[in-house]
Each structure stands twice: as C-alpha cells, then as structure tokens.
Amino acid sequence: MIDITLPDGSIKQVEKGTTAMDIAMGISEGLARNVLAAKVNDEVIDANRGIDSNATLQLLTWRDTEGKSTMWHSSAHLMAEALEFYYPGIKLAIGPPVKNGFYYDVDFMDYQIHESDLVKIEQKMKELAKQKNAYVRKDMSKSDAVAYFKNLEDPYKLELLEDLEDGTITFYTQGEFTDLCRGPHIPHTGFIKAIKLTAIAGAYWRGDEKNKQLTRIYGITFPKNAELTEYLEKVELAKARDHRKLGKELDLFAFSQRVGQGLPLWLPKGAELRERLENFLKRAQKIGGYDQVITPHIGSKELYVCSGHYAKYGEDSFQPIGTPHEGEEFLLKPMNCPHHCEIFKTRPRSYKDLPIRFAEFGTVYRYEQSGELHGLTRVRGFTQDDAHIFCTQDQVKDEFKKVIDLVLYIFKTLKFENFKAQVSLRDKDTPDKYIGSDANWDKAERAIIEAADEKNLPTIVETGEAAFYGPKLDFMVEDALGREWQLGTIQVDYNLPERFELEYTGSDNQKHRPVMIHRAPFGSMERFVAVLLEHCGGDFPLWLTGDQVAILPISEKYNDYCEKLLQLLNNSDIRGFVDDRNEKVGKKIRESELKKIPFMLIIGEKEVENNAISVRQRGMDDLGQMDVDSFIQLLNKAVEDELA
RNA sequence: GCCACCGUAGCUCAGUUGGCAGAGCAGAGGUUUUGUAAACCUCAGGUCGCAGGUUCGAGUCCUGUUGGUGGCUCCA
Prior knowledge:
Layout: E1 2-5, E2 11-14, E3 18-19, H1 20-27, H2 29-34, E4 37-40, E5 43-45, E6 50-51, E7 55-60, H3 65-86, E8 91-92, E9 97-98, E10 101-107, H4 118-130, E11 136-139, H5 142-152, H6 155-162, E12 170-174, E13 177-180, E14 194-204, E15 213-222, H7 225-240, H8 243-249, E16 253-254, E17 265-266, H9 268-287, E18 291-292, E19 298-300, H10 301-307, H11 309-313, E20 321-322, E21 329-332, H12 337-344, E22 356-365, E23 381-391, H13 396-413, E24 419-425, H14 438-454, E25 459-463, E26 472-478, E27 484-493, H15 495-499, E28 504-505, E29 511-512, E30 515-520, H16 525-536, E31 549-553, H17 559-571, E32 576-578, H18 585-594, E33 599-603, H19 605-610, E34 613-617, E35 622-626, H20 628-643
Parallel strand pairs: 1-7, 18-22, 24-25, 31-32, 31-33
Antiparallel strand pairs: 1-2, 3-6, 4-5, 4-7, 8-10, 9-10, 10-15, 11-12, 12-13, 14-15, 16-17, 19-21, 20-21, 22-23, 23-30, 24-26, 26-27, 27-30, 28-29, 33-34, 34-35
Helix pairs in contact: 3-4, 5-6, 8-16, 13-14
The chain binds one RNA strand of 76 nucleotides through strand 14, strand 15, helix 8, helix 11 and helix 18.
C-alpha cells in the first residue's frame, strides 16, 4: 500500500499502481468525468498511469492551467489525426499547447491547404472526438523510434529524436494516429467537445528562418460548446478595443500609403493627447533632476560607426543619406544615445556634476521588416521618451532604482497593473552577438538584478534577450489580443562610454569613465499610446483625455448660456466644447458617448432658469443638476486624485 | 523578408453561376427647436487598391504589384 496526499492534506491509502483516475472515481463519479490529467509530486502525468510510491496528488481538470494545456496538447494530436486522414503522407513537426489553444507545424509537401479547408478538418476532428479514443502511452527504444520515422520518411521527428536519450522515448496513440510524444494526455478524445481551428500561418522549422517554412495551424478546444461561444465572444470584444480601430474612431492617428508604411500621422487629437503625456513625464523628470536636450534627426555615419551600431545594424537599416558634392554620409537617427554622448563631451565633467541626466523626446527611424509592422506598436518612425544618465560606478544602482520608481509611478498613474518586469541577460554561449568585456557585462547584470531585488520588483529572467551592448530591465504589457509588448526599458551600458571615451574628473583628480543608463519609461510614444488605448478601451483618464466635457444645448435657444459655461470651464483649465449642431439631445449624447467624452452637460430651460447644469457621466445615467462651481471642483479634484 | 488571407463611397459593409456598382452612417441643402444612446425630406459622393491578361462583356476569373490583417523570423 502507498500513501497519496491530496491537496486538502488528507491521505488516502491505496494499492501500488493505482491511477489518479481510480482515486477520482473513489471520490465521485462526477469528478472522475472531469479529470483530464494528474499532478503527482509536481509532475503532470496521464490520469490513467499507475502511481508506484507515496506521493502528493492533484487531480487536474479544465479549471487548472495544466489541465487546459493537457487537453490542448491532446487536441493537437487529434488535429494531426484529422490532417493525416485528408492529407496522407504529410510530415508532422511539432504540436504543442500554447496560451490560448494549440498548434501543429506540418510540412504539407505537395498539398495546397487553404483557410477554407479548416472547416472540414474541424468536422473530422469532431467525428474522431466522438469515438472517445483513448490516448495510449507506449515506451519505445530509440532504435525502434528511429526506424519508425525512417519508414514514414519524417525528417522532423528524426531530428527531434536526435536530442532524446534512449529509454526516455514514449509514443502516444489515439485512434489511427501515433506520435512521438512525452505526454501527458487526457484519457480519451471524448473530452474534446468544442473545436475551432483559428488560423493558418507559416512557421520556420525550429524557429530558424534558414530552415524550411512549415504550415502552422492554430486551434482551440473546449469541453463545452458554451465555452467556445464565450471565448469567441471575448475575442470579438477584444477586437473592439484594438488601438487601430479606436485610433480611427477617436481621430487620433492615421497612416497613408503615400507617406509610407509604418510611418504614423498624428492627427490633432492624437497629437494633443501625446503632448499631455509628454508634459506629464517632463514634469516628473524635472523633479527627478533630468535636463531636457534636443538633437537632430540625422547624424554622421561616423557617429554610429563609433557607437558600434553601424557594424551591428548598418546593413539592415535605412541606408546612409549622401550629400551631393562632398560625398558625406549621414544616417537617419535610429537612437539618441550617440548624440547624448556628444553632449556629455561638450565640456570637461567633474564627479561633482554627476549624475547627469539628459532627456529628449527623440524621434528615431528604424527599418523594420514589412511583415512586422503593426499599427502603432511596431512602426518605422517613432519617438522615444529617451534619457541617458551618466554616473559613477557607485551611483549606478541608486540611479537604476530611481528609474524603476519613475516607471512604476507612470504605470500606477495610468493603471497598468498587469505588467511583467523582465530582466534580459546575455547568452554566454553566443558571445559574438554582444560587444564589451565580460567584466563589464557582469557588473551591469549584477547592478540590474540587485536594483530590482532591492525595489522588491518581481522579475522574470530571460537569457539571451539582452541588447548587444548591455543587459536590460524591460516592462512588458499585453495588448487587447493578449500579445505582449515591451514598453518601459532600463539598460545599463559600460560600452558606449568606452567607445566615446567619456570621462569625468574624480575627487582624486584622475580621469574616470562614467557608466551610462539608457531608459525610456514609456518606451515609445507610439507604442505606449497604442497599448494605453487598448488598456482603457478609449476611456482615457480625465487628466489625459481630449475633451473632458461636452456641453449639449437642448435647443439653439440655450447656445449663449452654453458658451458662457464653456468660458467658465476653460478658465478653470477644463477642456470641452459646445455641441451646438441642429440635432436632438439624444443624438448628441450618443455621439459624446461614442467619442468617449467623460462628462456631458445637458442644458435646457430648467438649467438656464436655475443657473445650473445637468450632468451626465460617460457610461452612466443622469447624475442630476448641480451648480457650475461644484462641477468644476469635482473635476479638478478628480484630476488631482488621478495624478496623485 | 517568409506563409496565408483581405482590399467596393470619408467610415462600416452588401454585391448570386462573369451581364447597367448598392445600403446605412458621415457630408451638403432644406424642414424641425428638440430633455438623457440615432428626427424627417432632398442631393451629392466610385477608374471596385494599382498595372496587365482572359472574355462579346471583369468588382467577380488569371498574372504581377502595392497596402492591410493573422502568424513566423527580426526588434539598437
């Protein structure tokens, strides 16, 4: 007999070899019907695998993340079975679960597959699911496994097998389909009730563009049809928050084929919004001891040869701009740091001057591959809320911590609560991807990790994600469709000061090299506005939004009164307008709501008589009458609270 | 850059097997003077992304190209 400890702490004594499914049955049949997999001593295994020794056991259902992954992994196998039915001879690569569903990468050989084919594949999957075929696990020796896939002429599985040790290789079979797979899987296909194949895309084998491009089919499955419907509705709702849609609806920005792809045009309302964001940050930076600087949009090619950027990105960038007679070469500025280094060098610096913090809303241009461009989140011309801090080695950690505080203040003010802080370190196995000495990298990496620790900032560490010149701390936020974007970034750099031979005179009267910190709390204005827009669904905070108040006269008889009201509001720094169109008030309200204006003042005879206003708040009903002064106070207080 | 899909009026979209290019909103003119999410009438608005081709005839079929979308790769 062995002891099985359940999550509630209770212990069940069962015979050796008892399965999680047996134990679930023992608890209740209803539970057993929902068990997708089991977590035994922190390892997820098939619910029908025997347990051989004392263990903790958690039964995984659809409610558990691992339960979902297991089902989606099994769904990928189910899809593969359907694909083999319609396209015999295709070569299968990998088919893992992902955050929302699963995919399978397939080499379709000579078959042509189209999006319209997905429906019939879904149908086949449903048919196969109904057969409640069990997922059967089988150990196989490496030589048998190799023989099996040699027979199938599947180069991808053979390549995968190369990395596997003999004795650890398992296969799973359900129905007519067998696949090399570590597992675990759900007990049988019958758990898969609702199926939707969502997309078809190209994907390079092993994620390397030098390799063959395979066809990836994405899908998602659910144990109930209702959940699929709910999911699809959620996706539709998310699309309504898409910044590209909202940006158009709210007249914030546009693109023009004639101007060029990836080159955003900020419309008046968008430009004003951006200006308010910039002023908000400028104010915070002024308090933080930053000095604003301004540098040109181009710089001599030599500047970037010196910085090392030309060697790294020169070939894959916008190409140099030549002058007609002298043959000089300039680059469209891809970043601001070299310019700021030159500002540092305009005069001798003393340790007493440090830290020096140069800030600039610097517009930069980068050649991004056309397929990568995406709304305002990935563009070819954008403005960084950039700054470079030049400090002594001793000041690095403190300065870094101050920047973390600044980023967190911004995120808090704009209510970004679900962000990820990622420490990006170098991959020591690919040293040629980086420049600078190991000693400096070590120092920089340590500084970042310690600063984050001391700020109690929960971080995830990603190796190999560092910039080529230094490690960084990135703040990532998801967009409406769950895609992750890097916003704020802080980077320690020992490299540029060396390349530009930056120096300051220390208290010892000797020359020393400063350390640089690159930082951009928003990241870029474009991407930040995009993510902010999706985050708040267009309902910007009061302090940031364009028109805070729409004054809606019920008939033109009250226009004069409304104009006077607007004057009063403007005098108190409240932004608004009078909608004096010849339209019914219902329509004016509707349009104000659609334009996401926070407050509407409805003005008719009653208000004029009482020298009052009727207030309606966005997304809410009539708040009733009040006098103008109270309303002004209310708004000013609300703005003050938002920025506190 | 690669794979797949899409492009019809300012916007959102309809347009059968190839047979006279449509609607709603927005815009203009008029009527109406309006009470908490769309008043009414009239008008105007298009080289169907662009360029070729097939055809008696192309928004529709084919080729190329450009832009967008979803992924992959990349991201200073």
